[in-house]
UniProtKB/TrEMBL annotation:
It comes from Streptomyces fulvorobeus. Keywords: Membrane, Transmembrane, Transmembrane helix. The keyword Transmembrane helix applies. The chain crosses the membrane at residues 7-28, 34-51. It comes from the Bacteria. This is Uncharacterized protein. The keyword Transmembrane applies.
Length: 55
């Protein structure tokens, strides 16, 4: 394999690795965002439930 073909293969591998890292990061961030959204919705409901329970 000549130097140019090896360089192209290495570059393609690097691009694939970076794309994989980006996909994993986006998936983790989406999961984190969904968890935070559920937490933001559940906290007011919990507070309202406790306030009504005290009546």
């Amino acid at each position: 394999m000549n130097d140019r073909a090896q360089w192209v293969c290495e570059l393609a591998g690097l691009i694939a690795a970076v794309a994989g890292v980006v996909v994993v990061a986006v998936a983790l961030w989406s999961g984190l965002g969904a968890g935070l959204a559920l937490l933001a919705v559940s906290l007011p409901l919990l507070v309202l439930g406790n306030l009504r329970k005290g009546d």
